[in-house]
Specification:
Length: 112
């Protein structure tokens, strides 16, 4: 004699199994989504941490500022030299003008 379970029990178990399997799949998909989001957030946090501890941009800015200050000093020296040269030229041209103004009168007075 073979014992058979009533058909309604087998169908009920199948429904419970199917519902449980469906719930497990749903939870696995949700876990996968949360895990992906967690990995994404961890990646962003690592990038921010690296950016905060990476001082190379600051070092580059400081080096650029130092270079600009050196260039400004060099330009100030050049401006000073050019200004001095202009003043000397003006003084030289004024004394030359004064000399040339005096020379004809000396020549005119000496030759007369």
């Amino acid at each position: 004699v073979m014992l058979l379970t009533p058909p309604h029990h087998t169908h009920a178990h199948t429904q419970v199994y199917n519902k449980s399997t469906e719930q497990i799949n749903k939870l696995q998909n949700e876990l996968s989504t949360v895990t992906d989001e967690l990995q994404h957030i961890k990646g962003r946090m690592d990038e921010r941490g690296s950016a905060m501890t990476d001082t190379s941009p600051i070092v580059k800015i400081k080096a650029a500022l130092t270079k600009i200050k050196q260039e400004a000093r060099a330009m100030e020296i050049r401006i000073g030299v050019v200004s001095h040269t202009i003043v000397l030229k003006r003084l030289g041209s004024n004394s030359m003008t004064a000399r040339s103004a005096l020379q004809p009168s000396i020549l005119a007075g000496g030759g007369a």
